[in-house]
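TOPIC: backbone geometry
CONTENTS: sequence, C-alpha cells:
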Amino acid sequence: MSDTHIAKAKIQTQWGPQPDYQNAVLNSTVDKILAMRTLPRRVVVLGDVSLWFGYLGDYEVAFPIFERLKAAGIEVHLAPGNHDHRAPMISVFPECAERSPVKGRITSVVDLGSCDLFLIDTLIENPEGEGKGNPTNGALDEDQGKWIADAVQKATRPFLVASHHQVGELRFENKPLLSTLLSSEYYCGYIHGHEHRWSASWRHVTKGERTIHRKVCIPSTGWWGDIGFTVMHTMSDSAVLTNVQSDFYYPTPVKEGESRPALWDCIVKDNNARTCTFSYSS
C-alpha cells in the first residue's frame, strides 16, 4: 500500500486543521487484509504515512492500525515519503531503523518468497524537522546509492525495487538509478506511490534496443485519487501485482447530501482487479 496520509485530527497547520477521514479508510483496508483467506506474509507501505508535515501525533495514530497487522503475524515494512519526517517516524516505528541496512535511513530488504524487494528511502527532508514541509521530489543519497548498487551487483535471484517516488527521479554517481538496476540480469521492475493512482506501464530504455523496463504506480489507501491497495503473488517464474480498488474521489470524498460524480465509479470499475506481471526472465 502507499500514501496512507494518517493524521492526528485537529492539529492546526499552515494548511488548516488536519482532517482524519483517511484514518477510517486505512482501518477498513486492514479489515480487508485480515479477512483474506490466506493472510499475506508481508505488508509494505510506500511512504507518506503522515498526512502533511510528519507530526509525531500522526505516527502515534497510525501505530495501533498497523499493530493490527502485526498481531496477526504479518510483518510490516514502511518507507518514508515526502510528507514524512524520519525522527518521529522512527521513534514510533523503531524497527524501521533497526533493520535498515543503511544507517540513518529507512530501508529494507523484503523476502517475497521467490524474489526480493529492495525498499529504498527517497525522502529529501527539511532540516527543520517535524511540522515543516519537504520538497515534493525524491532523491537518493550517497550511502543508499552505494548500498543499492552493491545489492544489485551481488544479487543471485530475481528482485524488485520500490520507493515512494518513481525511479525516473533518482540518480546515483551522476547517472540514472535505472541504469544501475538494469545492469543486473535479476532486476524485474519498479513499484512506487506518490501519484495516488493505479498505473502499470512499460518503457523502452534505449531507442532501437530490446530492453524493456516494467513499472507500477499504486493507489493511495484513502487520501485522494485512486483508493485501494495491491496484492502481490509470487510464483517460480514471476510476480503478479493485483490492484484492489475500492473507491475514487478528488479532492475529498463527497459529503452527505452531495451527489457523487458518475465518472468516479467508472474509474473504480476500470481499475479494480487490474494486474501487472513482473517476469523473472529478462
In short: The chain has seven helices and 15 strands. The chain has a mean pLDDT of 96. The longest helix spans residues 56-71.
